[in-house]
Amino acid sequence: MRDDWEAEAQNWARFARTPGLDRAHRGINLPALRDLLPAPGRRTLDLGCGEGRLTALLSSLGHRVVGIDAAPTMVRLAAGLRWRRIPLFLHVRAVKPGPGYRPAAG
Predict the structure, then answer these.
(1) Residue 34's CATH number
(2) How far apart are CA 41 and CA 63, in angstroms?
């Protein structure tokens, strides 16, 4: 799956960043997410941060955001946005698993 997101990163960013295209995000997903968000001011993890649009939202609301994604291009796209507060971005391969970690079979 990582390779698929990496291959489509530019296309996804273009889609996600073009106003009016991702109606499901704006009309369904974003309102549901906002209802679930804790109060800002604490460290917030955006796992699978993609091109960074939710990371940008969380940052603008006052969250101290860490964005992680498996696709290096997605991390570069997210890190390239202009930020009010500077979030931290990591590529998942740069994160070392802890002791006892075993990858899932398959």
Answers:
(1) 3.40.50.150
(2) 5
pLDDT value, residue 5? 87
Number of domains in the chain: 1
Secondary structure (H, E, C), 80-97: CCCCCCCCEEEEHHHCCC
Q: What's the pTM value of the predicted model, to 2 decimals?
A: 0.73
User: In which residue are the tokens 């800002």 written?
Assistant: 40
d(CA 104, CA 106) in angstroms, rounded, equals: 6
Q: Three-state SS for 104?
A: coil
Report the C-alpha gap between 36 and 39 in whole angstroms: 10
- Distance from chain centroid for Cα 29: 14
